Amino acid sequence: MCGVLAGAALTTGAAPARAVSGDQRIAPGVGYRQFDIAAAAGTAHAHLLTVDLRDPRVRLDLLHPGAVAARATVSSLADSTGAVAGINGDFFDISETQHPGVPATGANVGPSIAHGRVLKSAVPTGQRFGPSLPPGTDTREVLGVGLDRRARLDRLTLAGSVSSAHGRVPLGGLNQYALPEGSVGAYDARWGDASRLRSVCGTDTDRAAGCTTDSYEVTLRGGRVVSVSSTPGAGPIPSGTTVLVGREEGARRLRELTPGERVRVRGTLRAAAARVPYVFALGGYPVLRDGTPLAGLDDTVSAVRTAVGFSADGRRLLLLALDGGADYRRGLTVAEEAATLRGLGAYDAFNLDGGGSSELVARAPGAAAVSVRNHPSDGAERPVPNGIGVFSS
């Protein structure tokens, strides 16, 4: 592929210390290259995919293991779906040391859409994992590609309700590892078989706060209550079944329901900007908007990072992952990451999970499977809840 967006010099204070090579053609419309970046903490090494959505043979979609509360390596997700390349995605519920006896779900923080289908909504901002957000952003921020084949930065908000003879309750969560205080959340087969206990732990402002003792669960099948429980359960949720979990006031409202009663649950994600449906979307946070870095980006903490940048028309994308090898794992600050992507020609950019999660995979010419192109800083691939897959026919 010709160097669409990939031929410009970096503007992070210096040009790359050693540009390894020009783009290697991975597949029609998809290129790969690697280069060094002179950064404040030392030299960082970048791996870059260039993707041209103007080519009708190319598309992007969410990589995920088939359930929200599940994890797999990026290489296995790519190979199982036929992707020619990919990177890791959103931050996720990786550890529950503050809540002894409560298993980590592995579920991601932000909203997600795969193959045009909504999977989940965002946890409260105070419940997120990952570094501090830039001022003015929250967990509803997404990067997505619409049916018009254009990438966008957007914000997806859950809109829905639980209706019964007792009235209507706003839907506070959809397949997410943490529910807002006082709310009712819905879980279905998309969630997976992980315990739902984590959903009632922490508060809207403190992820480490204890689990509420005031919770309730109601199982619906065919739109009717079939069972109730005083605590959230676990195990797979069959198709056609919805489990409602309530905490505090939400639990009180669910206690009004009795077996056999009819209940209607509605929920969807509403976009703040897009007027076309999303093919896929995933969470993280913006670092570059309309060609300008966001105010307040961290410029002190260097780390291995993954990010996506794209052109003003949303048709040409840069998927970047830093190398976690011992010689390079000092990485970039978020401010340096934004400047790097801007120097590469990005108009907008979005930060994804980093550290041991940072990974970029791509097929070698003629290969039937992807290979890991960067060195994961954990020494091996870390299973993650989702990623971005690049497909080319």
Overview of this structure, please?
This protein is mainly β and 393 residues long. It contains three helices and 24 strands. The strands form four sheets. Strands 8, 9, 10, 11, 12, 13, 14, 15 and 16 form a nine-stranded mixed β-sheet that branches. Strands 1-2-3-20-19-21-17-18 form an eight-stranded antiparallel β-sheet, covered by helices on one side. Strands 4-24-5-22-23 form a five-stranded antiparallel β-sheet. A hairpin with a 2-residue loop joins strand 12 and strand 13 (224-229). It is globular. The chain starts with 23 loop residues before the first strand and ends with a strand.
Rough shape?
globular
Distance between the termini: 14 Å
Tell me, rounded to a whole number, the average pLDDT. 94
Indicate the low-confidence ranges by residue numbers: 1-20
β-strand amount: 35-45%
Sheet/helix structural class: mainly beta
Strand and helix order? EEEEHEEEEEEEEEEHEEEEEEHEEEE
